[in-house]
Write a structure and sequence with these properties.
By secondary structure, this protein is an alpha/beta fold. The protein is 29% helix and 15% strand. It has 9 helices and 11 strands. The strands form 2 sheets. Strands 7-6-8-9-10-11 form a 6-stranded parallel β-sheet. β6, α5 (147-158) and β7 form a beta-alpha-beta unit. The structure holds NADP nicotinamide-adenine-dinucleotide phosphate (NAP). NADP nicotinamide-adenine-dinucleotide phosphate (NAP) binds at residues 68-69, 90, 92-93, 96, 144-149, 167-169, 171, 187-191, 193-194, 215-217, 241-242, 271, 273-274, 309.
Length: 309
């Protein structure tokens, strides 16, 4: 069996299950694209691999999810098969951070409401009581201070905000930090520990009028509690890229059982945070680099099965 974790590299075969549209993908091993992996596969690049296919690959040592968030399928596959290691990519951290910033600035200035008015020829918001929020001088809490969160933090500091990053080492202080979070940006992975983290109780800890941005995963927030807080004014505005319901059939398909789409103080996007004109090229480059390191037996941080990310 070929070693993928420090062993000398021999007989590696890389299979990329979804046929990509990349200009190049150069790794120091034979590579196949699309369809079922050949029996000699040692490294399988696939987000949601089929259990039976995985078990038919006797030399398989690594599964690479070609994006950041780990779906439950590969995690449970690896949990039950200790010979397999799981890896993921953070290629689009800057793209996703830029989306978080776009949602934040749009939410702070109630941009979707202003844009909708102008499209109706309605200038009345110009003469109404202003609901715009100045961000400079305020405090932003960035929940999840990894590849995405740190980029968000850097830009917000440059914009004059005070930034507090929260990661596992200081998550225990969350309840004492939230009352001063005039802006809360969520850039966490969805794991057993983060699901429902921002529940009704914690949403009530936020200062009145706070702005909430989520580019992590929907179920990190209790959607009913967030909806009610936005409707009733406890939370001032929100920018949401990730959701609780994803489309399963014909449109329209609303992204939560709560009618966020009826609230003027919410800016919504259909989980496109990580997708820009540069992200696919970067996906290929980061994936090639990661696979090459595995093939050469160099150290690569694997997903922690117990932490779920
Ligand atoms: N909207 C989109 O299109 C899009 C695109 C890409 C990614 N995402 C989402 O964004 C997530 C983060 O991506 P990333 O590349 O920034 O990942 P990352 O570099 O792994 O960063 C994750 C951060 O979350 C923290 N964290 C994890 N579990 C925690 C817990 N239980 N309590 C407190 N902090 C915890 C980590 O803490 P430590 O620093 O202590 O490890 C780390 O700071 C992904 O998992 C994915 O769900 C969304």
């Amino acid at each position: 069996m070929a070693g993928v974790d420090g062993g000398l590299l021999m007989n590696h075969h890389v299979h990329v299950a979804e046929k990509p549209d990349w200009p190049s993908f150069e790794v120091p091993a034979p590579v196949t694209f699309g369809g079922d992996p050949p029996p000699e596969t040692t490294i399988l690049v696939q987000g949601r691999p089929d259990e039976r296919v995985v078990d038919s690959l006797r030399n398989l040592g690594a599964i690479v999810v070609p994006w950041a968030g780990i779906p439950p399928e590969p995690l449970s596959l690896v949990t039950n098969r200790p010979r397999l290691r799981l890896y993921n990519l953070h290629h689009n951290a800057v793209d996703t951070a830029e989306m978080a910033l776009a949602l934040l600035f749009a939410a702070a200035r109630r941009l979707s409401m202003l844009d909708a008015s102008m499209r109706r020829g309605d200038w009345s918001p110009r003469f109404a009581r202003t609901e715009a929020t100045r961000l400079a001088g305020k405090r932003a809490v960035v929940l999840g201070y990894g590849a995405i969160g740190r980029h968000v933090g850097k830009v917000l500091e440059a914009a004059g905000m005070e930034v507090v990053g929260v990661r596992r080492s200081n998550i225990g202080t969350l309840d004492t930090i939230l009352p001063s979070a005039q802006v809360l940006v969520i850039a966490l992975p969805l794991t057993a520990a983060t699901e429902g983290l921002l529940d009704g109780r914690r949403i009530e800890l936020l200062p009145r009028g706070a702005i909430v941005v989520n580019i992590g995963r929907g179920p990190i927030i209790d959607d009913q509690a967030l909806y009610r807080a936005l409707r009733d004014g406890g939370v001032g505005a929100a920018g949401l890229d990730v959701w609780w319901n994803y489309p399963t059939g014909d449109p329209p398909h609303y992204p939560s059982n709560q009618p966020f789409h009826e609230l003027p103080n919410v800016v919504m996007s259909p989980h496109v945070g990580g997708a820009t004109d540069s992200s696919e090229v970067d996906r290929a480059a980061h994936l090639a680099e990661l696979v090459a390191r595995l093939v050469r037996g160099e150290p690569v941080r694997a997903v922690s099965v117990s932490d779920g990310y």
